[in-house]
Design a protein that fits this description.
The chain is an alpha/beta fold. It has 17 helices and 13 strands. Strand 4 (82-90) and strand 5 (93-97) form a beta hairpin. The chain is elongated, with a radius of gyration of 23 Å. The two termini are 14 Å apart.
Length: 412
């Protein structure tokens, strides 16, 4: 029996590789115990671990788990402090998780109550993300996957432009500081030193966010408050972004205005906007991009079962998050799929329509959600044991006819 384990992270508890590893350990232990109880040999049980993500946090781990090499660079953090940020490279392909360079989690003081706040909301920059892209270009990469999410900035991606060599100037010819608020003083953009290698580089924007850049559903209005912006900050940031669009349109043409309305332009504080407007990026659903570079469908060949999951299985999961992407891939290969999660809020009807053979939550073992979060690793391994025992009862020899029978019986 071969089981493919392709989960997303359990946010706040375990990374996707840790989830896959814990599940695999539990499955193997449970399968062996079940076979021993039935006086049957336990050999012939195999797990293939393929950590996945939806394009946001965890995308880097998914890339490394699929053969990319982890690299690092010293870049400018969201408030101007130097940080070390990682990215991943495979040949001429690079995966950049912008949160590693420009995310809320790398703000000084994040987690202790001092960040994010109104000042960081106005001054945080995406400069480090541009610097990461340049580091990938230095390594010969010409296909850049930019996974966005968890950003600290609302600067329209202006920092990305600065990191790639553009200079933003005020009316007196002074270079602007970072952050969205400073864009209100933008007079012109000097593109003379923009990295020429971008002309031969394909950029993919991996994002599920479909918000435009401006207005009531734009980057500042929808995501600004999560980054510490007050209502007054939101209004001033939105106005500054609108001014940025006007200046950029003067520099590169009316397509800059069109790009502001494009779905995904509001992603990551407007980094989606500059990726579309200035880098020629194509926006694709994050899960599709990740499943493509992990080669999940090809690696499903010969599998009897797929296990996927994430921390919370809810209505958002049904809108294209990792578990559904994996479930669709498994369905195309005719392989049953089950889901594991910290907790599930889906109704029986929703679960029935999801395509999962079954769903198993840590709350089945521990009703206290806080303990599930704190002890997710051991609980996930224990859940894997229960699933492994049930699989041991259904395992049959893996010649072709028997494999078909196994797939028809696998409901655990």
């Amino acid at each position: 029996m071969r089981v493919v384990i392709a989960p997303d992270k359990f946010k706040g508890s375990l990374s996707a590789p840790e989830v896959a590893s814990r599940l695999s350990a539990g499955l193997r232990t449970g399968f062996a115990a079940g076979r021993a109880a039935a006086s049957l040999p336990a050999e012939g049980f195999e797990t293939t671990l393929i950590p996945v993500a939806d394009g946001g946090e965890g995308t880097l781990d998914a890339a490394v788990g699929s053969g990319f090499t982890r690299r690092s660079a010293t870049v400018t953090g969201p408030t101007g402090h130097p940080i070390t940020a990682e990215f991943a490279v495979r040949g001429e392909e690079a995966v950049i998780e912008m949160a590693a360079a420009s995310g809320l989690a790398v703000l000084p003081g994040f987690g202790d109550g001092s960040a994010p706040n109104t000042e960081t909301a106005k001054s945080s920059t995406s400069l480090g993300t541009g610097e990461l892209i340049r580091a990938a270009l230095d390594l010969g990469c010409r296909h850049i996957i930019l996974g966005v999410g968890g950003s600290a900035n609302t600067d329209g991606g202006a920092g990305v432009l600065q990191g790639l060599g553009a200079v933003l100037l005020d009316a007196e010819g002074n270079e602007l500081p970072g952050g969205g608020a400073a864009l209100a003083r933008l007079d012109r953009i000097d593109f003379s030193n923009l990295d020429v290698r971008l002309e031969a580089t394909e950029v993919v924007l991996a994002s599920d966010v479909d918000n435009p850049l401006l207005g009531r559903t734009g980057a500042a209005a929808i995501f600004g408050p999560q980054k510490g912006a007050t209502p007054d900050d939101v209004a001033s940031l939105d106005a500054a972004l609108a001014h940025f669009v006007q200046v950029l349109a003067t520099e590169i043409g009316p397509e800059a205005k069109d790009a502001a309305q494009a779905p995904g332009a509001g992603a990551a504080g407007g980094v989606g906007y500059i990726a579309i407007a200035a880098l020629g990026a194509a926006r694709r659903p994050g899960i599709d991009v990740v499943l493509e570079f992990t080669e999940l469908e090809q690696r499903l060949a010969g599998a009897d079962l797929v296990i996927t999951g994430e921390g919370s299985l809810d209505e958002q999961s049904l809108l294209g998050k990792t578990p559904m992407g994996v479930a669709r891939a498994a369905a195309r290969s005719g392989i049953p799929v089950i889901a594991v999660c910290g907790r599930s809020t889906l109704s029986p009807e929703q679960l029935s329509e999801s395509g999962f053979e079954s769903v198993h939550a840590l709350t089945e073992l521990e009703s206290n959600v806080e303990k599930c979060i704190a002890e997710a690793g051991p609980l996930l391994e224990e859940l894997g044991k229960h699933i492994g025992v049930r699989l041991s009862e259904k395992a049959v020899p893996t010649h072709d006819a028997a494999r078909t029978e196994t797939k028809e019986q696998l409901h655990v």
